[in-house]
Amino acid sequence: MAQQVIHPMVKLQRNVQSLVDSKIIKPSDSILKIALLFGEEWQYWKRELLDFGFSTQDPVSELLAVEAWDEE
Length: 72
Prior knowledge:
Elements: H1 8-21, H2 33-38, H3 42-51, H4 60-64
Protein name: DUF4327 domain-containing protein
Pfam family, one: DUF4327
Organism: Mastigocoleus testarum BC008
C-alpha cells in the first residue's frame, strides 16, 4: 500500500489552523505573527510562502483558504 506524501505547505497550513483553533492567533492576524511561533524554521516557511505569492502582511485567513498546493 503506497503512502501519500503530504505537501509541506499542507503541514504548515494544519499547524496554523491548530493555532487559530487554540485561539493563539486570529484569522485576521498577519502571517508575520506566526514567525514568532515558528522560531528557527521561519526562514524556510517565509521563503515557501513568498514562492506561493504570499506577503508576510497577508492575513492568516488567506493561507488557510488555500485548497490545493500545486507547484508548477
